[in-house]
Structure formats: C-alpha cells, structure tokens
C-alpha cells in the first residue's frame, strides 16, 4: 500500500476516534439503576453516577418521588420562598463507594412508577454553588402478595348536600373531579397506597350517570343519585356505596390547556401559558400550576393563567415537566394538562 494511502487511512481513523470521543463527552447522569429498571420495595440497591464533563462536584443528593408527585427539592435559589424540602434519601461524595453514589434504600411502602432524582452540587469558588440533576423513572413492585384492598374513606360516602352553595371552593358540585384513597395490605404487613392504575388497580362505577371513571383513577361527579364503586387489584376486590346530592345545576367541566412543549436556553425567562384553557359555559377559571419533573425551580404566579420561571444552568439538555389544573366558579375541575420544557446549555 502506498504511503499516501496509508496516511489517508490513518487520518480517517484518527478523525473517527476523535468524533467518537467527543460524542461520548456528556454531563452528569445516573448510570445505575437504569431508566425503566424494575425494583423491589424495601430492598437496597447500589446507585452510581457518571460525572461526565461536570467538574467541581462536591456531593450528590438523592430523592424519591411518585411519578406525578410535586417536586419539593429546594435549590440554591434566592428567589425561592416557602418551598418544602423533600427528605434526602442518600448523600454521595468522593469518599463514598462508589464515588458520589452508594447504597440506596427503595422505600418499603411504594408501588408502581417512581422517580429517582439525583441533584449534584457544583462549587464555583467565590461565586458559590450551582446544581445539576438527572432523573430516571423506575418501576417498584411489592415483595409479597396482596392480601386485602379497601377504600380509605367513610362508608357509605356522602357527596354534597341539598341547597349547597355553588361558589368556588366548595367541595362537591356537578363536574367536580376527585380522587379516593385506596390502600392495599400486603403479606409483609405493609399498607401501600394503590389508587393509581399504574399500581394495578382498576375502577368500575355501577352508574356512570352519577359517578364517571376518568383516566388515572380520577372520579367525576356527573349527577345526583346512588352509585357503587368497585376496585380490583391482583385478584382482590372491594366496593364502596356513594350517595351524591349536589346542586342540580348542569355544568360542563372546563378544559385545561398547558400549551405546547418547548426548548429554551439556560438563563431564559420561561413563560407557561394556560390562556387556551376554556370553560364550555364561558365562566372565569381558577388556575393551578405545579412542577412534576426535574429539580425544583422557583415557579412564579403559579395560580395565574400564565406562570414563569428562570431556566437554570444545565450542562446538557434536561426536561422540566409541569401540570395545569383549572376550575370553574361552580367548582368543576378539568383533567390535568401537561407541558414539558427542555432546557439546553
């Protein structure tokens, strides 16, 4: 082979290697457990992270959340006030084994989809610290069989009352959407909340004209009368008699619209818009925004039609997810609407 040809092949191989190395450079992420992994409640696993191109990391905090739980981690944000700080499951550092990871306890009373959030604190010297995060969704199963299932509420359940005011804030009205706590007792003696269909619970209403079953284990008051709710999970079953007596006034529930998903640059003021939400009767709406994915940001005007937050600094693209619910003046609720904001470096 001629020398020029060998040089061309060498340059091509070198260039390909450089591209591969460049593409492998990434930011802080969770490598174990892998996204989508199946875990057993109450067991202990080893958490591992790859620091990637993020340098200066001092410690990593780990948090467990349900798939749709509100994000309650408060970051180093001078504008954040009144935030609830979630309990830290584990703190990893350079001294832990593996570095910045370690033994992580899977909550014993969980079941179904769970989010594991890892927040890394990066030192910037005199500039203080900043945080980066990664998050994976895992599926937790109980270690033993289900022995009993039941509604955790008064029986029979009475909803509404004759002559009830329909002003906003009253609990029961036509169109109201709500959840009932459902619990399961397992052979290990642990009681777990299993109301989410993702945990295996299915719902049935004997009278959909009184109580309607909605996605996600939500229930909606449709009209007055009696209905029997039946829940089933892992071959176990329970029933609940419900008597509905609300203001007999037709009211279609509003529809929430959280806008379209978007991508923004770090440092951008991001606006979340629910202005396309609507009520079939044209009534004014009450808004409620909450964050359900990503490390916590300071969300301003969370009870207005438009909320906003400052896109934090990230080392690579990260997704923040928000949920919007709207309620009309008569107390009817919408189904939740979601929007995702991808923040890029």
Mean pLDDT: 86
Largest sheet: 5 strands, mixed
Could you give the order of strands across the largest sheet? Answer: 2-8-7-4-5
Distance between the termini: 46 Å
SSE sequence, one letter per element: HEEEEEEEEEEEEEEEEEEEEEEEE
Classify the helix fraction into a percent range: under 10%
Give the overall shape, derived from the CA principal axes: flat
Instruction: Count the beta strands.
Output: 24
Give the number of helices.
1
Structural class: mainly beta
Radius of gyration: 25 Å
Low-confidence stretches: 6-24, 75-83, 163-170
Strand content: 35-45%
Describe the structure in your own words.
With 345 residues, the protein is mainly beta. Helices cover 6% and strands 43% of the residues. It has a five-stranded mixed sheet, with no helix packed on it. It has one helix spanning 3-24; strands at 29-32, 38-40, 44-50, 57-66, 90-93, 102-105, 112-123, 129-141, 146-151, 157-159, 177-178, 182-186, 191-193, 202-205, 211-214, 218-221, 225-233, 236-244, 262-265, 269-273, 285-293, 306-310, 318-328, 337-344. It is flat and about 65 Å long.
